[in-house]
Amino acid sequence: MKENIRIxxxxxxxxxxxxxxxxxxxxGLPTLVAxxxxxxxxxxxxxxxxxxxxxxAAPVGEEDWxxxxxxxxxxxxxxxxxxxxxxxxxxxxxxxxxxICVLGAFQVSQSGDLAxxxxxxxxxxxxxGGAMDLAIGAKKVFVMMEHLDKTGVSKLVxxxxxxxxxxxxxxxxxxxLATFELADGQVKVVELADDVSAEYLQEVTALGLDFSAxxxx
Amino acid sequence: MINxxxxxxxxxxxxxxxxSVIAIGGFGGAGQPEELIEALIDQGAKDLTIVSNNAGNGExxxxxxxxxxxxxxxxxxxxxxxxxxxxxxxxxxxxxxxxLVPQGNLxxxxxxxxxxxxxxxxxxxxxxLLAEGKETKQIDGKNYVFELPIHVDYALINAEAGxxxxxxxxxxxxxxxxxxxxxxxxxxxxxxxxxxELGELDPExxxxxxxxVKTLVLR
Lengths: 217, 219
Prior knowledge:
heterodimer, A: alpha/beta, Glutaconate Coenzyme A-transferase, nine-stranded mixed β-sheet, 4 helices, globular, B: alpha/beta, 12 strands, NagB/RpiA_transferase-like (chain B), 3-oxoadipate CoA-transferase (chain B)
């Protein structure tokens, strides 16, 4: 995916995060969201490796490699940020204290099932990390992903074919084509990206979409 | 800007509803949030379930809340302290329900609630009156009792200092149940002796991160 498209998706996610929310950003595409959160709003980031508060990427040459985020990138924290051990970090997720987590995905199903840890292929090396704890623990799970996989097949599916990370846990999906709200087994399109028609979106998506809630841009 | 600081004890406890489950910090007097309890008595919420290590002594604080007839049930490990006559007379008169919980189970059941753990196996109490009727399991030849989490609506705790994001540090043994009660509760109200600017509390020594605290008030 082109960098300008990745940024456009990150901006859309950042816009939907309210002030005061406690937010966990997964590795990969979701990490980008941190760069687009409005600085005039206080939004709290949680990183599974034991830091909560606000931070930015450390400038080149000023990295402290004991001070990293979940993506193992060097960060610099703002005053008010705090550290804690790993069990407390996962208590924050599993205990329902995180308002929103943003994750990548291989597939998301109509009912909100999430598959993002294993392709199930015989030669694939799976890695789950903190994804299963976040999927069941966060009050809302936002997924950022490409709309189609590398072979051009829709990643929004009726039923996931890849092994699941969590059941009925996804509340929103952001792709380069649109933003979707998932509830009660329905997938509602809430926003279409520029130059994307409803007809085209439905054509490349492997399940029936509800367009009744589309906001005009 | 996020500012969790409440301007008065009365405002801090104003939203507490009748029938709430309230955890009250403290081990004896150390860490007991006297000012918050007094504000709760004045506020008037009733039919409360209280989770606290003790059941109060004298006539003020937790004993005062009991005496005012606001408490339906108490979960605690040690209700018999010196001068705990308010609890004793209510209990003997059948006016308060008691769930006696071994102290380690009280702490761990609160922690389980805070961590989203659905229950846990513990050897404490196996074969005793306090484990009667509970599920048991033998693991590697040792006997365990299954214990459930204690979910709390409000926690009233004392901390030493905090900042406007709700980060807290405690003082000496007044820390006791404060951190686990803050985790187990939907709405933690912390009374602090000092409020600092963001960054003045060393991020390495913050004991309760602000994510577990909704309201902070200066005592």
